[in-house]
Design brief:
This protein is an alpha+beta fold. It contains 9 helices and 23 strands. Strand 21 and strand 22 form a beta hairpin.
Length: 481
Amino acid sequence: MALPGLSLPGLGLNSTPTPVYSGPVPPPSEQIARREDLPPQAEWRFEAAFSQQYSIRVLHGHAELFGVELANNQTYNLSGCKGAVFTWQGCQLEVTGEAESEYAAQETEYAVEWLNLHGMLETARDDRPNDGPRVLLVGPDHTGKSSLVRTLAAWAVRNGRTPTVVNLDPREGLLAPPSSLTAVTVGSQMDVENGFGISPISGPTITAVKTPLIYHYPYASPTDRPALYKALLTRIALGTINKLEEDPSAKQSGILIDTPGTLNDPKTGYDTLHHLVSEFSITLILTLGSERLYNDLHRRYAAGKTPDEALPVLKLAKPGGAIERDAGYMKQLRTRQIRQYFFGTARESLNPHSHMLGFDDMTVYRAKPTSADTAEKTSFGAAEEDDYDPSGNGSMVSANAVFEKVAPSVAMMGSTIAIKFCPANSEEFTVRDSAVMGYLYVADVDEARKKVRFLAPHPQRWGDRALVWGQWPEAVADLVT
């Protein structure tokens, strides 16, 4: 069965040029390189600002960043990155530029723990070739969950596996702008500078093509609209598992699921975690940075159960290099992810396209704002269970309606708009449950002429599709000039 979002349209290179990228670029300047010698099982931790040049080159030995091996004598630009270059046998680095913080650390016991976990997952893949491990990572924010997912995926790829990575945090994008819930099967090594890379939908790229399955959650936190979030989890789980049934190698490699830290709250997040465990048929839960969360989940899924009934719950230590990313940094990160979706990176530039549409040629659905009066009054209680019909034959309870049709306005400028795989005049539950074809950027709105200028990754029009304007992420005003 073909699934929306798992294939991308052809490349088009002959459309009207679009306005040039106007984002901030670190100014070129003469930087003095310095050398750092790292002993075995040590790491170079750094926090580089977006506005500063910062690069690392391995001169001797072997080193890796989030599980991806760094090639010797190749310079990697890591501006805007907070990470740690780790070495198992020792290495010499050449570091250029200024960082907000940088130091060599030798308290890296977590790396051995992660490597043992990788070995355990490899054993599980070999023991059950027809059904690989399905791993759920949970814990508070800033505990290293995303770093662990990237590292486990990179190590699996180096072993010839093709793991499927699922990102369920709408605050960060994976091969898509923020507000996306994404599943992608990783069959090639990830990029050192850009992680999982970028979706190559408006030009050729250096890295291998990755075709994600994307759903749109137009809010910052699962607690803003828990019923909507739960419905989308069911959809992405169904799509991911169906896709794995078509690919024996990916099914054997298993699933790695990264979750937002808000699910760590017993009052608002535990029901969502239990829903995740059920929908994805989780076989292993990993907890990071929360003793309470580990004990709560262990009590529910493992304690007092037979080996056949128990779901293993493991507790991992928080890495010493896992640090808090403040609101200012996260806003800059979201802006960069949106910019890269349309324009690519300095090394892999993309060529987006301009589209001018009249107000009457589009149907825009606006995600309603959340408030104490409109938010759901239960945390997946009985009243909410009836809001979602997996068969697609029902409709949403009007009191919990999420979207409303709106006329285009200047308030849309700078926003990202999701194109849904459904007709423009679909029922609300269809709009809600449909996967994402792609995203648009609202470059200009002319209310006098009743025209909207969109920036799109593809030269062709998207046809009669529903357009969803979310409450998240915030508008980016300076994407084009």
